[in-house]
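This week, work through this protein record:
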Amino acid sequence: MGLKKKSKVSAQFNMSSLTDIIFLLLIFFMLTSSLIVPNALNLQLPGKKSSGPPPASRPTSVKIDSKGTFFLDGSRSSFSKVEKKIRSLKTKKNAIIVIAPGKKTPNQYVVKIMDAAFRHGVTAKLTDPK
């Protein structure tokens, strides 16, 4: 009697096509992520050393207290006056504005100054909160 044995069905899954797809996706995301340029603010954090040339004049100082009051070079002023001063610094080469927030200053006021400096092309340096 010539009975044939039943062939067993393999329970293995072929992973080669799946790994090809994963490698293609990996390459795609690696290439596209290198093309994305973040739109970041030109901000130098405290503790970092700057290799740029030193400023020709004294940097403009903007202090912000915990209530959101702006002090431009020691005198109290509104945000529109601060922005006007930042706009005038745009014409000066290597102009720097120093942002000095208080310890409990809300971030929105600091970001307003940083955004104004970014829009007008002025370098902003952020000091440690005091």
